[in-house]
Design goal:
Number of domains: 2
Helix content: 40-55%
Radius of gyration: 27 Å
Strand order of the largest sheet: 2-1-8-7-6-5-4-3
Number of helices: 19
CATH topology of the largest domain: TIM Barrel
Shape: elongated
CATH class of the largest domain: Alpha Beta
CATH superfamily of the largest domain: Aldolase class I
Structural class: alpha/beta
Largest sheet: 8 strands, parallel
């Protein structure tokens, strides 16, 4: 997992906490601290000392710290330096979300991003999305960003809940746009106030994979358990709960932070205790496919004339991060299958990047260094010549790689090419098995037809059965689940004979 949120998730798993400790030195808190300590230090230095005490008391619980720049800037130039020093003193393993709520474009946005990431050395910021992606991209090229979506202030409904022409609310549009922006590198999350559990639920549905920063627990009246239940992903992750005064003003900040952590973890336990679920690589594959727009739900007319409730377009796995993750899911499937093979073969054209990505994943994740070969569409009559490129296949066991098998044409062509080269086929691995009858005149799927005709194993990352389980188990889309079930009932095959 890459990007800011990959690092954040590692921190969460390491300490088993979703609590983000806010570092907001209100002037009244600084004054109280001065009276308590009888210190002669400046307000800025006292604010720094106050925050460092909180860091030291809660660093075992904090998956992140969130200093609010405004409270430091209020102390002038010395306050700006205090904020910089504070971030520098936070342990390196704990991410820092700098709460600045910037929102500008062009060179101004570049300058703001430079200040946040290069001067202050924060790893993430908060941003306004009102000016669109022009105000977001300069920041997410450098680090993480939480985008204001549905905020916790009472007047947020004046704009954020305006209904758009398509019937959705403005904040839902922000959530879906943020999912698109996140494809740049896993650096985008949302801000949704914990004071509105319904909005959290809506935002989570609109952006099922994004991390949500949910302020408002404690002094603003947000219900911790209710907001956690609404905003958590099904894996018990994806929700960062910032708490400032509820911890800093407690008689024992350490104990308060631990109590908040334990309450959230209790909800997380209930969220994830849903019985048997999909293996992690299958669940991750579906989440990636949804995030990239590869998997869509609706009404789609297929080449066969059937009206399908879902559509799968692997060509939209078209970024470095997406292809890398896809390669890992293929590699996981291959290793789990126990298939014995010597060479990966990627049929031109889609199979070429797939085979390459899988080979990289097999090596980096499993230490298995596998040669790769692929074919040209036309034979080359100069240089090395021939149809095949890459590793020699003669006398080897070859695993063919593809995205789907619709009619089996590409697989038949690959089998012919490999046979002519003196290779044997160990099997075929694909991403999605539609598990539906190839035509109305047969009870076999295209994959079952290939298995029967050529006596070759075909394995897939997922099939129609796993898609249905994913939709039902993780409450992705109730309407889609019902439609997929109906489609399977009508066109599905007996997978016991697969």
């Amino acid at each position: 997992m890459t990007g800011f949120f990959g690092g954040l998730e590692e921190r969460v798993r390491e300490i088993n906490s979703l609590i983000c400790v806010g570092l907001d030195p209100h002037s009244s808190d600084v004054a109280s601290y001065r009276e308590k300590t009888q210190s002669q230090l400046s307000d800025a230095k006292l604010a720094l000392e106050l925050c460092l005490n909180l860091v030291n008391a809660t660093k075992h619980v904090a998956c992140a710290f969130k200093p609010n720049a405004a409270f430091f800037e209020a102390f002038g130039a010395e306050g700006v330096e205090a904020l910089k020093d504070l971030i520098g003193m936070i342990p390196d393993e704990i991410p820092v979300v700098l709460d600045v709520k910037r929102g500008d474009i062009s060179t101004t946005a570049d300058a703001y991003a430079t200040a946040c990431f290069d001067y202050y050395k924060a790893q993430c910021v908060t941003l306004h999305p009102y000016m669109g992606s022009d105000s977001i991209l300069p920041f997410i090229e450098k680090g993480g960003a939480f985008i204001l979506c549905k905020t916790s202030n009472p007047s947020s409904n004046e704009l954020e809940t305006l209904r758009l022409a398509d019937g959705s609310l403005l904040y839902e549009k922000v959530a879906t746009l943020s999912s698109e922006w996140n494809k740049q590198g896993n650096n985008v999350g949302l801000v949704v106030g914990a004071t509105d559990a319904h909005a959290l639920k809506v935002a989570r549905k609109a952006a099922p994979n994004l991390w949500i920063l949910a302020p408002g627990v404690g002094f603003q009246g947000g219900n911790l358990e209710e907001s956690a239940a609404a905003g958590l992903r099904e894996d018990g992750m994806g929700l960062l709960i910032p708490i400032s005064r509820g911890i800093s003003r407690a008689s024992d900040p350490k104990a308060a932070a631990e109590e908040f952590r334990d309450k959230v973890n209790a909800v997380r336990g209930m969220k994830t205790d849903t019985g048997p679920s999909l293996p992690e690589h299958q669940k991750g594959f579906f989440e990636l496919a949804l995030g990239c727009g590869v998997l869509k739900f609706g009404s789609f007319t297929l080449k066969s004339g059937r009206c399908s409730p879902y559509f799968f377009n692997a060509g939209l796995f078209n970024s470095g991060s997406a292809i890398a993750r896809l390669g890992e899911y293929y590699a996981d499937t291959i290793m789990e299958s126990g298939l014995k093979f010597d060479v990966l073969f990627g049929p031109a054209y889609k199979g070429i990047p797939l085979a390459t990505a899988i080979a990289v994943a097999l090596f980096t994740k499993y230490g298995k260094d596998v040669p790769v070969a692929y074919n040209r569409k036309e034979a080359k009559d100069h240089g090395e010549g021939g149809l095949l490129v890459g590793a020699p296949v003669k006398g080897t066991r070859v695993l063919i790689v593809d995205d789907v098998i619709t009619a089996g044409t590409a697989i038949r062509e690959s089998l012919d090419i490999l046979s002519e080269e003196g290779a044997s086929v160990a099997g075929v691995v694909i991403a999605l098995d539609r598990q539906e009858r190839a035509s109305d005149t047969t009870d076999l799927s295209a994959i079952q037809g290939v298995k029967k005709e050529f006596d070759v194993d075909v394995i897939s990352i997922v099939g129609l059965a796993e898609l249905l389980k994913f939709l039902q188990t993780y409450s992705i889309d109730e309407n889609a689940a019902a439609s997929v079930q109906a489609y399977r009932d009508r066109y599905g095959v007996n997978t016991e004979s697969s």
